[in-house]
Please model this.
Amino acid sequence: MIAIYKRELKAYFLTPIGYIFCGMYLAVSGLAFADTTLLEQSTSSLPTYFLYMMAIFAILIPLLTMKLFAEDRKSRTEQVLLTAPVSLTGMIMGKYFAALTVFAATFLVNSFNFVLLFQYGSPNTASIFSNILGLFLIGCAFIAIGAFLSALTENQLIAAVTSIGSIAAILVVSFVADKIGVQWVRVVLKWFSIINRYAPFTNQQLDITAIVYFFSLSAVFLFLTVRVYEKRRWS
Model:
């Protein structure tokens, strides 16, 4: 797994994808942060900033995940991975952690923006950290979703577009649920809604149920990716 992790991590910066992701992430999130907090000279718009970041994730994270498996399938190096002396789970986790490392490093650098808030007063540090944690967990889940969809195709563009569509659909579930008249359907949709699960973090609550939900969502899509490759290995 470590060898695959190093190979994938290196590959991000041997091609433009890693640089494009990092550059676009820092630029767009920086503009969103400036628009919602610095220009307003207030921290009251932080919830709006974090909602913007979810929308930004829906577009940028698929750029990070679209090559994870689709590229190997297209270049016919997939068989090398399938016959490598590593389990399918190890292979997939190596690739997942490589994408997660690039995301986490960029996410960490971007988080230093919050230091600027202290020039406007004494922002609620607990609220900032809880929101950062919730947003990071959402990013982890979105990477797992993108990895699964990348494993289904050899076309990176298709992988990116389907990932954007799927993540966007997950984000709007909460808004759609409010318009459904059937109560039990509304309750089920809100239970699966990422925005609803994120809500406790905006209130400085480290909701264990929400944390378990995000880890479980990541685990489910990584498990499905393993199943895709198990089927492919024996077909």
Q: What stands out?
A: The two ends are 24 Å apart (CA to CA).
